[in-house]
Amino acid sequence: MRHLIIYLAMVALATLASCEQDNYDKGEGNYSRLTADFVEAHTNDDTMFDYVITDNGDSLRLTIPVETSWAKKPDSLYRAMLYYNKVEGNKAEVVAIGQMSTLGFIPADSVKEMKTDPVGFESAWTSKSKRYINLALTLRVGTVTDQSIKHKLFLIADSLVTKTAADNATTLHLTLYHDKGDIPEYFTQKYYFSIPTSGLKAFNPDSMSIHINTSESGRRIITMPLE
User: Which range has highest mean pLDDT (74-83, 172-181, 191-200)?
Assistant: First the structure.
């Protein structure tokens, strides 16, 4: 399985790339009806986003196709966070769209040195479509001059355990690998990650448990059903 390293500059809420607008009004102006959703965003033949499918299963056509620097393949789906105003006819007026990173899995024996630097756990939930499990985590971050120094996160597939012989149900146990490197800890920033459930097909579990070393209370085990 592919070793996926998450570079957090891509997923911070504060770094969403704007569509011809870097900031938006949070009061009663043009953007007072603002909605934020996790989506699968589709690119057309010109690698511009033309429609999205939200985690609630809504398909929304964009009023104006949106081009970004990170979507480079035509006729493809990208995991993203979308800020938009919903307009008539199941259309979305885009305010900002940012790439959202997904966490993949690697076998435990492929990790030379295990790192579980603490993170803050806020929540975990399954999308209505059941295509993704989403995590909200917080990290201690700070400004660095060397842009190659970044947090690294991915999931280690530890084991597949059968719960009981009677129902033959299985749980995939995962550990969140986190290497904060030399990032200074000046302030706390929230980040969102998605785990594609399609990546679990090789394991075919009934549930998954993620072991996370948290900043608040030591190790936590987050268990999510997959049916």
Answer: 74-83
Angle, alpha carbons 8-103-158 (nearest 5°) = 125
Where are the extended beta strands (E) located within 116-201? 120-126, 132-141, 152-162, 170-179, 187-196
Three-state DSSP class for residue 166: coil
HSE-CB at 81 with a 13 A cutoff on CA atoms is: 22
The b-or-e profile of 164-173 (16+ CB within 10 A means b, else e) is eeeeeebbbb
Provide the phi-psi class of 47: left if phi over 0, else alpha when psi is between -120 and 50, else beta. left
Question: Which of 70 and 111 is assigned the larger pLDDT?
Answer: 70
pLDDT at 14 exceeding the cut of 70: no
pTM listed for this prediction: 0.79
Q: Where does residue 123 fall: left (phi above 0), alpha (psi -120 to 50 degrees), or beta otherwise?
A: beta
CB contact at 8 A, 21 and 64: no
Q: How many CB atoms lie within 10 A of CB 69?
A: 7
What is the rounded CA–CA span in Å between residue 138 and residue 118? 10
Q: What is the pLDDT of residues 22-72, one digit of tens each?
A: 333 434 444 457 899 999 999 999 999 999 999 999 999 999 999 999 999
Q: What number of CA atoms fall less than 13 Å from residue 52's CA on the CB side?
A: 30
Instruction: Match 């009934």 to its residue by tokens.
Output: 206
DSSP structural state of residue 170: E
